[in-house]
Amino acid sequence: MSTLKDKFQELDERNREASLGGGKEKIEKQHNGGKLTARERLELLLDEGSFMETDKMMKHRCTDFGMEKNKISGDGVVSGYGKIDGRLVFVFAQDFTVFGGTLSRANADKIVKVMEMAIKMGAPLIGLNDSGGARIQEGVQSLAGYADIFHLNVKASGVIPQISSILGPCAGGAVYSPALTDFIIMTKQSSYMFVTGPEVIKTVTHENVTKEELGGAMTHNSKSGVAHLIGDDDEHSMMMVRELIGFLPSNNMEDPPVRHATDDINREDENLQSLVPADPNKPYDIMTIIESVVDDHNFYEIMPHYAKNMITGFARMDGKSVGIVANQPAFLAGVLDINSSVKAARFVRFCDAFNIPLITLLDVPGFLPGTNQEFGGIIKHGAKLLYAFSEATVPKVTLITRKAYGGAYCVMASKHIGADVNLAYPTAEIAVMGPEGAVNIIFRNKISDEDKATAIEDYREKFANPYKAAELGYIDEVIYPRETRKKLILALEMSQNKSVSRPPRKHGNIPL
Ligand code: HXC
Questions:
Q1: Count of domains in the chain?
Q2: Of 13, 220, 236, 334, which is the most exposed, with the fewest CB atoms less than 10 Å away?
Q3: Which of 24, 99, 135 to mutate to test the pocket of ligand 1 (most atoms within 8 A of CB)?
């Protein structure tokens, strides 16, 4: 009969074996490729000593291709729960050292278990992806595992925050789990995502493309808009996830966490008084306003490399999380186009789902004209942004710094689509269109060039200012730029207990 000591020894042995994953050689290979192991990543991600592992001893049940002789405890994924800054999160980390981190039925069962727990307990789900995809030996069982995960990703959407970190391969249908989550962070050089790889592309379309060009971190952050952030390496990516989680509530029934704020809410910034140039055609950097007004000048930008004419990101105002959406006049004059509309719409919907108030900064000359945009469906993509702002019931505070022309005025959180507080700088120009365009249409072929110049000046005087809108109550207050922080915080404070009721419906039909 085995003694107590023997029993503990057996547990030690089993734990040690499971912790080693695919073994020393495979770990070394992982390190040589500039990657950390699943367990090392979790150590960086979670508060020290907080990780509780589930299903460490689970093994696959495959008996084809001699797999019954090749079983490793854990089966290619490390899963469980732990804490970030003391707050509960659920995690799974694919372990590339075990069967290439591929998804077997058992491996999927482990992921499904933490996903179901995350939904039940109301805590964020973080997936660390590094996998060769479906485990070929398991055939349709692996596909079933993926589909179960996709189904749960959708069930969890808008209920708990879901974050995907891509730290290695993520190819084929496997990409659709991260794609269904709220944020994707890709690591430079070591990560890639694609539905079909370079070899298949070469055969089908005869295009030559490298893995990095096709689906590397920069491709998805700057070209496709699939990913939201880039980490320099595994450690940096884990730190980015930790920081992001700090802005978010644990679930849709909670408010975001409040940090003790030391930044004075009445802090003024004299530099803002002269930031927006008197000449409406001169660009300036809207980021200066954002960084000036948020707590400790700390702005966490989302999708910084994509559609740079629109800025999105998180910050805190008096310790409370806010989502910021801003036209960027320093890039394409801050024009609204397909990519910037979709980028902002998705961000607005995330904030609304998770009770994060929205601050919208406007300096937008309108929608980008051109056949590219029209054929690409700017009508339906612009409508997404209009839909997202209109449907959002979180507190919405809007500040017009300069141009707010045409449809773009309506779309960007105007009073008419439910903003709670609408502010403007004295430099604001709120009208159907810019003075030149307006005069060209009203007086087409009817006046001389000289009179035209006078008419443009007249129009500018009359309409290119915030006072018409203020007279009508569409702007609540024209503010001094130096007071921006204070005014925004007062507006957010006023609207923090906002409640809005909507007619019952299954769900709306956002123009996809
Ligand atoms: C089973 C796999 C595997 C897979 C890799 N391995 N992919 N085992 N099924 N899909 C195993 C390898 O045999 C190897 O085992 C170990 O994982 C590490 O793989 P390597 O090839 O040595 O590593 P590396 O050179 O870094 O290349 C990684 C890779 C390559 C680029 C991911 O392995 C690869 O191309 N794999 C196939 C990818 C693929 O086609 N997956 C199916 C996609 S379709 P040993 O024992 O030698 O260490 C899909 C459908 C999902 O996923 C559908 C959802 C709806």
A1: 2
A2: 13
A3: 99
